[in-house]
Amino acid sequence: MDAQVRVMVVDDHPMWREAVSRDLAEAGFDVVATAGDGEEAVRRARASLPQVVVLDLNLPTLPGVAACRQIVTQDPTVRVLVLSASGEHADVLEAVKSGATGYLVKSASREELIEAVSRTFHGDPVFTPGLAGLVLGEFRRLATEPAAPASPAVPQLTARETEVLRLVAKGLSYRQIADRLVLSHRTVQNHVQNTLGKLQLHNRVELVRYAIEKGLDDTL
User: Is the pTM of this model over 0.85?
Assistant: First the structure.
């Protein structure tokens, strides 16, 4: 478990918010802030600088997707894991488009939540089973739409970075990629971080979309 990962929990139900915060703290995370509405979440994220935000979508004062967008805009390094009662496809896609890295429904177990926060911190896109395919499918649909003219300066990726990117486009986790390429988990993370820097992208969700737009998932 990743000790001292800074986490903020956002939910408008006090008992649920407190229970999630307690479970994460007991698991070794550093719960640096909590919030009960969207505007408060944006303010407290700015003040407490969490690395992972566990965010409900149904919030007063500012909807969860709008809060997510503002939190990610003010700190592109933060990762947002949506924890919602809704498993509606439209809600999932809207959350991802607003900058969320993952989406978990509230029926998830305590163990699933703890693992999801840890994986979110490491950059893995975490989705309730069945939702990952939905998100990938939406990215593929968007990739078929007419796009703006590409920039003439295309960053040069190494052969290994391109290989890792292909597997990212298939939806594999860092650990699965490491096993496939016989690399360490840390080495895969480094390749992904280098690729994000070269492409000027902020998170793995954006990277998946980029890879699909470039046709790197063509072996699926």
Answer: no
